[in-house]
Amino acid sequence: MALRYLFIDFDSFYASVEQELNPLLRGQPVAIVPTLKSDKTCCIAASYEAKAHGIKTGTSVSEARSILPNIHLIQSNSDKYVAIHKNIVKTIHDIMFVDQVLSIDEMYGRLPPKWQPPQVASLKAKEIKSALKKQIGRNITASIGIAPNRFIAKLASKIDKPNGLVLIDHENLPQALDTLELSDITGIGSQMLIRLRNSGITDIKSLCLADRSKLQRIWGSIEGDRFWYSLHGIDIPEKPTNKRTIGHSHVLPPSLRSTSGAFSTLHRMLEKACHRLRVTGYFTGHLVLQVKFGFEWRWNQEIKCGHTQDTRALSRLLNLLWESRPVMAPKPTKVAVTLTDLIHTRNYTPSLFETEEDRRQSELLRIMDDIKKNYGNRSLYYANSMMAQKSTESAPMRIAFNHIPDLNIESDVTFNNQKP
Ligand SMILES: [Mg+2]
Q: Residue 83: phi, psi to the nearest 5?
């Protein structure tokens, strides 16, 4: 079976960026945290030196400190990580066509037939590694997996971390996967682990030995079949996905854990989400608010509307939803805004009843977006979001697994133009 995919997964990406930029951190245990002002948060990344002591993504800061009192805690800096990510993609793209960037530290390419012989594929992987070392930095390493399908290539990239290079061909399946845990496989979460265990599948070996109909029964759908084919190296087409939501969520810093702080942060996130709508060419027909009060109480409220990308119209709906919030609730600790029911501009039918006022409003939004583009995202904002905009620790740009932020839309720093 031909080696068709080359998958690249960076090793402890955020921590290694910090180590590359600050020589004093090299060889040291480092953990990246959302804020240095609170001990009640979790590590969002850890260097290999910290991982060696059991500190990993999700370890609480207080636990990390108790395991390693000398650990270097660094506040996450998304602008920096995204800028380096962009250089990385360009560096790899100069050698191999990058088919898809899956997250800030994961991407893959399809190997053309002439690169599929194992020796050639290995050479390409080594070429990528040395270009990264030269152009990005020797402390930012990647593990590369090469296999007949993307699924196995991704697993291969996890086998020999850090700085690994693993080729898995059909002949060495499934034994090549033996060192992995079931939970290392994308698509096997805690619930699926229980279902697999109940069916007598406790490790990768028994999973690979299970026949297709058994996996279909365990998954309860055709997904089980897809999984069986993937696991056996067969290259099946990806399921088509549509962009279905745009959203932001934020754990409130202590200074914004109040009714007005939550309200203002919601408005700030809504402004960002609407800006992303306009830049990416989408309209939304559904606004969802989520607020966590205290540590247990979750409140959701949603509203449908005619398709729009107008911040002011959606702000009014946000205010309407906010009025129905629980009054006796504890202090808000986390807020989220999601825009769903997205349609692309090409499928959007403007209202027959568009007024002169609507046209003026669209023009105003366009001008406001231009000002933000030129002078930074905090140069202009609606009064409702002022409290959050003025707070230096509110809603910093963050990097989700499936969305690399556009620095020009989501960062507080201006990237493409000079300040006046
Ligand atoms: Mg990684």
A: -60, -45
Q: How far is the CA of 206 from the centre of ligand 1 (A)?
A: 27
Which residue in 137, 109, 122, 409 sits closest to 248, CA to CA? 409
- Domain layout of the chain by residue ranges: 1-168, 173-241, 246-410
Running DSSP on this structure, what letter comes out for residue 75?
A: E
Confidence of residue 416 (pLDDT cuts 50, 70, 90): very low
Q: Does domain 173-241 have CATH number 1.10.150?
A: yes
Tell me if 364 sits within 8 A of 313, measured CB to CB.
no
Strand 165-167 relative to strand 142-147, pairing: parallel
pLDDT tens for residues 32-46? 998 888 777 889 999
Among 58-72, 150-164, 172-186, 383-397, whose mean pLDDT is lowest? Answer: 383-397
Q: Output the CA 311–ligand 1 centroid distance in Å.
A: 36
Q: For domain 246-410, which architecture applies?
A: 2-Layer Sandwich (3.30)
Q: How far is the CA of 166 from the centre of ligand 1 (A)?
A: 15
Ligand 1 mean position, distance from CA 161 (Å)? 9
Tell me, in angstroms, the distance from the centre of ligand 1 to residue 296's CA: 31
- Tell me, in angstroms, the distance from the centre of ligand 1 to residue 205's CA: 24
Mean pLDDT over all residues of the chain?
87
pLDDT digits (tens, 9 = 90+) for 261-317: 999 999 999 999 999 888 888 899 999 999 999 888 899 989 888 889 999 999 999
Residues composing the chain: 420
CA 237 / ligand 1 centre spacing (Å): 24
CA 406 – CA 85 distance, rounded (Å) = 11
Nearest 10 degrees: Cα torsion 178, 127, 89, 111? -60
Q: Which burial class, exposed, middle or buried, applies to 307 when counting CB atoms under 10 A from its CB (0-12, 13-18, 19+)? A: middle
Q: State the CB neighbour count (10 A cutoff) for residue 358.
A: 15
Q: 113-149 in b/e burial notation, b at 16+ Cβ within 10 A?
A: eebbeeeebbebbeebbeebeeebbebbbbbbbbbbb
Q: What is the mean pLDDT of residues 150-178?
A: 92
* Residue 263 C-beta-side C-alpha neighbours within 13 Å: 17
Fold of 1-168: Alpha-Beta Plaits (3.30.70)
Q: What spatial distance separates the first Cα and last Cα of the chain, rounded to whole Å?
A: 59
